[in-house]
Amino acid sequence: MSVSLPPHKAHLWLVGAGPGDPDLITVKGARALGQAQLVLYDSLVHQDLLTLAHPDAKLICVGKRAGQTSTPQGLIHDWIAQGAQHGWRIVRLKGGDPMVFGRAGEELAFAQEIGLGWTYVPGISCGTSLAGLAGIPLTLRGVASSAWLGTATGQDGRITSDLLAALGTASTLVVFMGRRRLQDIAAHLVSLDKASTPIAVVTQGSLQQQQCFVRSAEVWTRASDVASLPDPALLVIGDVVHHQLTPSTPPLRSISPSFTDEYQVPHLPQARKSHLQRLRRV
């Protein structure tokens, strides 16, 4: 049975859905979805997250995918404006973190331009999580002291000058939307006498079908299977890839809830009394 929500002033929540696994959305993001009347979601958003939306919410896919027909940004703005005119609570649901290659700035600027209040709800970025989910640390003492996040191709269709410069450093490089330029990137590393530099390609990250392909730059330049690698894919470049570990954590959904324990917390000076705390396994 649908529960009607009280009317509120129109508002936009820009919510990060995380890297793919629906369990990785934040509690605040899930709460925003539960109150939404209009949800504008990207094509990379896991469908299970849509079940968190209010049952009366209008759900509209406004996805953008590399190499495929995409929703024009102007149409997304039109939907936001229409929701505002209706006085709706709007959730703009984006994969990863909206502030990292999510065009969040454009949509928030539009909301501000039309006088629509907005709230940003951060998400777990693919750029900072997928390497770790594949067992690769982005930084490692004695190996890499910094990490660089970037995209492979600029608006002019060429490899960005930032990426070319970063390839000459010892930083770990995390490249969004880089699969189509993988062999160009590998060839540039070879030209810098860095042919042995490992490059990991993490595909469908955080999902059960996640895969990680690791080869040296030199091997990638002559690989024949690059075009067949699944999308979405993220590149991780640098010596940290040599230190990849194999994750062995069981899925949390397979762990059943158990009993509740009670324990005494030491005396808290500000409260001047013992404090009883509950531990719950969920």
Description of the molecule:
By secondary structure, the protein is an alpha/beta fold. It has two domains: 11-124, Cobalt-precorrin-4 Transmethylase, domain 1 (3-Layer(aba) Sandwich), CATH 3.40.1010.10; 127-243, 2-Layer Sandwich (Methyltransferase, Cobalt-precorrin-4 Transmethylase, Domain 2), CATH 3.30.950. The protein has seven helices and twelve strands. The chain has helices at residues 27-35, 73-85, 104-113, 126-133, 161-166, 182-191, 217-221, and strands at residues 11-16, 38-41, 58-61, 89-94, 117-121, 147-151, 172-176, 198-203, 211-216, 233-237, 260-268, 273-280. It has a five-stranded parallel β-sheet with strand order 3-2-4-1-5, with helices on both faces. Strands 6-7-10-8-9 form a five-stranded mixed β-sheet. Helix 5 (161-166) links the parallel strand 6 and strand 7. The longest helix has 13 residues, at 73-85. The two termini are 27 Å apart. The relative contact order is 0.13. Residues 1-6 and 257-282 have low confidence and may be disordered.
